[in-house]
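This section describes the prediction task in plain terms. A model, or a person checking by hand, is given the sequence of a single protein chain and must write out its three-dimensional structure as a string of tokens. No templates, partner chains or ligands are provided. The sample shown here is typical of the held-out split.
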Amino acid sequence: MLQSLHCGTFFSRRCIWVNGPVIVGAGPSGLAVGAGLKRQGVPFIILERADCIASLWQNRTYDRLKLHLPKQFCQLPNLPFPEDFPEYPTKHQFIAYLESYAKHFDISPNFNETVQSAKYDETFGLWRVRTVLAGGPGPGQVEVEYVCRWLVVASGENAEKVVPEFEGLESFVGDVTHACDYKSGENFRGKRVLVVGCGNSGMEVSLDLCNHNASPSMVVRGSVHVLPREVLGKSTFELAVFMMKWLQLWLIDRILIFLAWLILGNVEKYGLKRPKMGPLQLKNAAGKTPVLDIGALSKIRSGKIKVVPGIKKFSSGRVELVDGEVLDIDSVVLATGYRSNVPSWLKESEFFSEDGILKNPFPNGWKGGAGLYAVGFTRKGLSGASLDAISVAHDIGRSWKEEMKQKKHSVVARHRRCISHF
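The expected answer:
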């Protein structure tokens, strides 16, 4: 690397040339790309705004969380899970796996470094990535500009929490917590809790609250697919993947819905209306993941989890619903999801949409123009991210080796010209 310094009274600025790609994000996607590059001998830098790898998993998930899919569909390239791990590893087991993955491939991200902007310099054909390094010397922060040929966006679809606006929420006197800050129902014992959202997080938070003797009411505004996590001891996801070898999605969806009806019964009578589009087709079209039931449905049947419609407005210790019902509540948990933060720092409009989603669908969305790549934006979970990481690492590795070969030939040619003068 080449580095030059330009110091000011408040900010210290550095410019660093990276002889390889800059990867933004040290989650599973960024680690997978880094591992693929390491195996090819390609140098790189990973920039991570948090102080650890997989910060979403380490800092913004609840304690009871487990992988929703069997471990073979969640492992990263070139290193399987330990054989003694259960089929559905816990949050802490997955974090341990990721840490061992980084250690195995000798990946050392630059922590506490937040990307402020990334822009392609058309004059020089290079990317300029500007960051702020927290905790630098002196009273201010250290600004760094990385210059590179390739940029890999691996900051993920879940970089920022989504907090909807609700009328009167500012006047609510109880606790309001986003699911990213929820750890356990221990602090909610005996409380009436409104859980806003009915995805996998909303269902699991409601179940966890029940297990800690709280009284959750779960807001279900629209429709949702609820599927059993397993069918006859086999993963529902694994069954769907198996059927994809021979059947079209619409037919697989019908089979899954029929199996769900046999195992779970008619969930619509509990307020869980199914979408008109099947679960796999809906996932492909809108990125909406079906809920895999791990026990919440039985609590809904028993009335321990109350399903309620959308919210009209909040007041001091109450919430009024769209059907006119008023509930007395003590706390609110917003299981309202996450979004990409890419538009806030990537100065580009051809590859990503204004919402921070790739414009080209899977499996062709991993490569943009001018050396720009993306991993972890496929809406295909960890398995989709791993496939993209393999493609990205291979493509960059090929380009890097070609450039190194050309530079080597250029040096040899100059050396020969120099010798000819003597």
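For orientation: DSSP finds nine helices and 23 strands in the chain.
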